[in-house]
Design a protein that fits this description.
- The chain is an alpha/beta fold.
- It folds into 2 domains: about 15-175, Rossmann fold, CATH 3.40.50.1970; about 180-370, Up-down Bundle (Dehydroquinate synthase-like, alpha domain).
- The protein contains 15 helices and 8 strands.
- The protein has helices at about 25-35, 45, 70-80, 90-105, 110-115, 180-200, 205-225, 230-250, 255-265, 270-285, 290-300, 310-320, 340-345, 350, 360-370, and strands at about 15-20, 40-45, 60-65, 85-90, 125-130, 145-150, 155-160, 165-170.
- The strands form 2 sheets. A 6-stranded parallel beta sheet has the order 1-8-5-4-2-3. It has a two-stranded antiparallel ribbon with strand order 6-7.
- The radius of gyration is 19 Å and the shape is globular.
- It starts with 14 loop residues before the first strand and ends with a helix.
- Fe (ii) ion binds near residues 188 and 271.
Length: about 375
């Protein structure tokens, strides 16, 4: 874990607008910047309410699929020809594709030329991000995740050019998110904060965002799941997701995300559900290496946890209180796959190398078996 004297760089979108009604400021910003050909990247839910953006002359790719893959991205890039500003309007899936579209359009290259860290070298169009779920925090970050259908793995691409010029976080956009998506995306936001907080490269600056994000999820997630019209809870979660996004930048996630990825790529489980299923197991496994921080996490989520069994039981009960079935078997996962999933997760060194405990393939397989 890093200390106050450790160097750290943080990057944010040039402008961040937070709060109810901020969506109404988009059209003026576009006009002030002189953009003439806005291009919206949206999922099916958001393409149906494009009028909220107040743009008269926008074109749109409205076919973003959850957990998008490279063919989905390629279609979006093709549709973007001629635009001068890209607007991601949706959850993490739409915003991640918007980032990649923005660095690929007008450029003589394709995804394989820019995937990975620091390979997208420029951007010739503007970029705006408008989250409509409270989860990924993708609106404030430099990273995008798409699935390579050939290798069945999530490819992380990262570039400062994928950082938005403007992020509009209007909690009103999330009021329509169904209860189960609210639960899943809220757990994702919390997992970003928890994993950054306990990472080997956690940093005091980021710890503050992380802990506040976890507290917001502890206070508001169940409220928003139980009553989607609770405006205060929706705003609290939008803020938690933003803080989670801040954590992702310089610190990023560790074992929780790595071990949940095979559930998304193989079984198409929603990113947040996959995170929830794994969360209690990694929190408990990491507890001995970060006892004080684990106790703070448990307290922020509303239960007391000191010993490993207490942490496991408390975290599981927290997720179950959101209505989530916490058994892998309930999502069609095959027991025969657990060993190869463990090997696949163990290979995600970009995340696992920062986990406070060194987890072997056998440790990971045993977590899957316990969760089964
Ligand atoms: N860039 C990052 O740093 C980062 C971080 C975490 C996750 N991700 C990625 O983000 C993706 C997941 O994003 P997500 O969890 O936001 O889910 P999502 O974007 O896939 O959306 C989930 C579902 O909710 C619907 N939806 C979105 N907004 C809605 C609204 N306001 N009302 C009703 N329905 C709505 C969508 O149509 C979709 O069916 C994954 O691909 C994941 O890998 C990226
Ligand atoms: Fe995530």
């Amino acid at each position: 874990m890093l200390t106050l004297t450790s160097p750290l760089e943080m990057q944010f979108p040039s402008v961040i607008r937070f709060g109810e009604g901020t969506i109404g400021t988009l059209a003026d910003w576009i006009a002030q910047k002189g953009y003439k050909a806005p291009f919206v990247v949206a999922d099916a839910v958001n393409v149906a309410r494009m009028e909220l953006l107040g743009l008269k002359n926008a074109t749109c790719f409205g076919d973003v699929v959850p957990e998008p893959d490279i063919p989905n991205l390629n279609k979006a890039v093709e549709a973007a020809t001629g635009c001068d500003v890209v607007i991601g309007f949706g959850g993490g899936s739409a915003m991640d594709l918007a980032k990649l579209v923005a660095v690929l359009v007008w450029q003589d290259c394709e995804f394989k030329d820019i995937s990975g860290p620091g390979r997208a070298l420029g951007r010739k169009v503007g970029l705006v991000q408008i989250p409509t779920t409270a989860g990924t925090g993708s609106e404030v970050g430099t990273r995008a995740l798409v699935t390579n259908p050939e290798s069945n793995s999530k490819v992380a691409t990262e570039s400062v050019h994928m950082l938005a010029d403007l992020a509009i976080i209007d909690p009103a956009m999330t009021m329509t998110v169904p209860a189960m998506v609210t639960a899943a995306t809220g757990v994702d936001a919390m997992a970003h904060c928890v994993e950054a907080f306990t990472s080997k490269r956690s940093h005091p600056i980021i710890d503050n965002y992380a802990l506040q994000g976890i507290e917001l999820v502890g206070k508001y997630l169940k409220r928003a799941v139980d009553d989607g019209s609770d405006k205060e809870a929706r705003a609290g979660l939008a803020l938690a997701a933003f803080y989670g996004g801040v954590c992702l930048g310089p610190v990023n996630t560790t074992s929780g995300h790595a071990i949940s990825y095979p559930l998304g790529t193989r079984y198409k489980l929603a990113h947040g559900i996959a995170n929830a299923l794994i969360f209690p197991h990694t929190l408990a496994a990491n507890a001995p290496a970060a006892p004080e921080k684990t106790a703070q996490i448990c307290a922020a989520l509303g239960f007391s946890g000191v010993t490993t069994p207490e942490v496991l039981a408390g975290a599981k009960a927290f997720c179950e209180s959101l209505g989530l079935d916490m058994r892998l078997r309930a999502y069609g996962v095959s027991e025969d796959d657990l060993a190869s999933m463990a090997a696949e997760a163990h290979d995600i060194r970009r995340l696992l190398d920062w986990n406070p405990v060194d987890l072997s393939v056998a440790d990971i397989e045993s977590m899957y078996r316990q969760a089964y």
